[in-house]
Design a protein that fits this description.
With about 120 residues, the protein is α+β, with helices and mostly antiparallel strands. It has one domain (about 5-115). It is built from four helices and five strands; from the N terminus they run E-E-H-E-H-E-E-H-H. A hairpin with a 4-residue loop joins strand 4 and strand 5. The two termini are about 25 Å apart.
């Protein structure tokens, strides 16, 4: 359960943020359980920065029906909204110790801590 955090978005959705080099998908049952408690139905964004780096498979989205994820709905996203990037950036600024348990090189960790890259 320590491989992710669930961030609420102002838009009403949620982002699952990887908190280490471990992929949150290994904890998918726990994520589903947590999301049930939010009484949420809709798309859920996954930010895999700490386990995939600044690559094309950093962002993924999957539909949640209130009980479980629809694996057939999984899609890679190339871009996300500026407000979502800002929320993720704020999360890592406030919780920068997570960066140390990632695959990111030191230079990228530094830039994220300074708010220059996210």
């Amino acid at each position: 359960m320590g491989s992710y955090k669930i961030l609420p978005l102002e838009s009403g959705g949620y982002v699952i943020v990887a908190t280490s080099y471990l992929r949150p998908f290994d904890d998918i049952d726990h994520i589903e359980y947590d999301l049930k408690g939010y009484d949420y139905h809709g798309g859920v964004l996954f930010d895999l920065l700490l386990c995939n780096g600044l690559s094309t498979n950093r962002y993924m989205k999957m539909d949640f029906d209130g009980e479980k994820f629809d694996y057939d709905s999984l899609v890679l996203l190339k871009n996300i909204s500026g407000s979502t990037k800002e929320a993720i950036g704020d999360f890592f600024k406030e919780n920068d110790s997570y960066l140390d348990d990632s695959i990111l090189p030191n230079a990228q960790r530094y830039l994220i801590r300074c708010g220059k890259a996210i």
